[in-house]
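Fold this sequence, please.
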Amino acid sequence: MKTIKFVSHDKQQHDFAAAVRKNVHNYFAERGLSTKGNTQIVINTIVMLILYVGSFALLFMVKMNPWIAFIMSVIMGIGLAGIGMGTMHDAVHHAYSGKEWINKLFGGTLYLIGSNVFNWEIQHNILHHTYTNIDGYDQDIESKGPIRLSEHAPLKKIHKYQYIHAFFFYGMMTISKLVKDFSQLIVYNREGITRRYNFNPTVEYIKMVILKLLYLFVIIGLPIIFTTLTWWQVVVGFLLMHWTAGCILSVVFQMAHVVEGTEEPMPDAEGVIPNDWAVHQLRTTSDFARHNHFLNWYVGGLNFQIEHHLFPNISHVHYPKIAPIVEKTAKQFGFDYNLKPTFRKAFMSHVRRLKLLGQPAI
């Protein structure tokens, strides 16, 4: 993969990058605050684990008809998405706690959806956060069959109505990771990425196989063996749980990057993006519904995407306080700050963007 460089000769951009880092640093220094998580994130973790693990345990403790079991599967999906957004995400960014063993422990909650921590760190922490919204580098906006998320990707007839059918396919996100992780790891091994980060490719592949088999045995095998549900009812519940979690996660992720006002720049022939990295993040991300306290809590601050991309190692519990600082600094230096005031407006902006991406460029 060709390396991209962020090179700007605009003093205003460099001054903004320095100022926003200084202003946010001063916020924590003046108050003697840690940039890591606090009691709020612990409570979020406990609640989401109860929704997920507690609902799963009830399947074994209480004899229930299939329809109630399906409702429990949806609740598990809601909890699973919450764990991914509010717990795992912070932990893998080393922001959940100042103690690294705690970050590793809660980063491992990614295995609760049958996925792989190493793959996530490469795809998300490195590729997505470094090359945000750059087609061919940021895998979060790569074309996924019937969905076109990048204006630089080939346009197909099926994309015309993606603003309608995309939300069904969004639900396939976590279930597809069960299989996609294998091909993804093969690519990382082939390109030398695995060894570059001091991991053994063979060991990582064997570990992935074992953990996925263990996950499937626990989440599917045990209910078939120890509950009164039939095998197909268990499978339907499993798919329903993953579809719920996948749809929630995908919608929240895409409302931060694939909305009106976010850019999808491409490097020049020399692999250069003519922006300072901080300005690139500002132009490729969007905040939404900043004053919706329940949403802030449930989605783990992913509605503060500008702050997260500028300061990924700061826990999301602090984003509501530093967002006004970032916004004020951006405006002082003449840069737009992309904010959708409500969830509905962000959602409709995403729908309009999907519709536009499904049509030929004018």
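The chain has one domain: 5-357. Residues 5-357 form one domain.
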